[in-house]
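Example 4.3 (complexes with small molecules)
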Amino acid sequence: MPYIELKNINKVFNPNSNREHHALKNISLVINKGDFITIIGGNGAGKSTLFNAISGVFPLDSGSISINDVEISATKEFERAKYISRVFQNPLDNTAPRMTVAENMALALNRGERRTLKFSKNKDNIALFENLLKNLNLGLEQKLNTEMGVLSGGQRQAIALLMATMKAPELILLDEHTAALDPKTQKKIMLLSEEKVKEKNLTALMITHNLQDALTYGNRMLLLHQGEIVRDFSEEEKKKLSVTDLYKIMVDLDE
Ligand SMILES: Nc1ncnc2c1ncn2[C@@H]1O[C@H](COP(=O)(O)OP(=O)(O)OP(=O)(O)O)[C@@H](O)[C@H]1O
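Answer. The structure with adenosine-5'-triphosphate bound is encoded below.
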């Protein structure tokens, strides 16, 4: 039984108008438990639309999505957020800027449960948050009571990753989550992502325009083009590829 299965997914934006766009064309994909799949493709290839389809941002035109054999295509976005985490490119989109670091982390701990913020800010949880932050080696354990909004983008993305993985989601979607960071911080956040995926045996999809990252991380790589998965590289195939090879494969698609 496949862990996650996308079957013949189609999404057309602005149908029957001159702006009609077939953004996802009959996409089928089997994702195994523990897969860390990098996703590449040119601008407009459909990568974010694929994540939106999986997260339930819009209903599918056709096709189905199942996790552990449970069909989720009709499930609302907020329901899916209980078992699908997403980290966006913009640090502002991942955390609540006016709430403190501890309050943000408490919200993540509460995901999918009916506990109040007060309940989860108890001493045990604060110790847990402190510990998680200490492991980042960014000195953030001193900032539990600091408003998230005053932290740097890299600090916020690191905390966003902790929040997204705190409850070990069935699936984590990393949506160009390092693209807005400086190169050194990008590397830190990528290593942290890899560490969390391994530590918690997570299943992850990661969109990136950084071809080296797409090759370095994960055990599988998809290439999207004009709404279709045109290549599905195994770990072995990925290892044999260079950035130049990959670039050429992508350029050839446009010719
Ligand atoms: N809500 C929407 N309404 C209309 N068109 C949309 C919508 N969302 C995406 N599209 C269109 O679908 C196509 C795929 O967009 P998508 O954002 O998925 O591409 P992408 O591969 O993530 O690109 P990028 O690398 O630039 O982020 C684009 O042509 C885009 O304009």
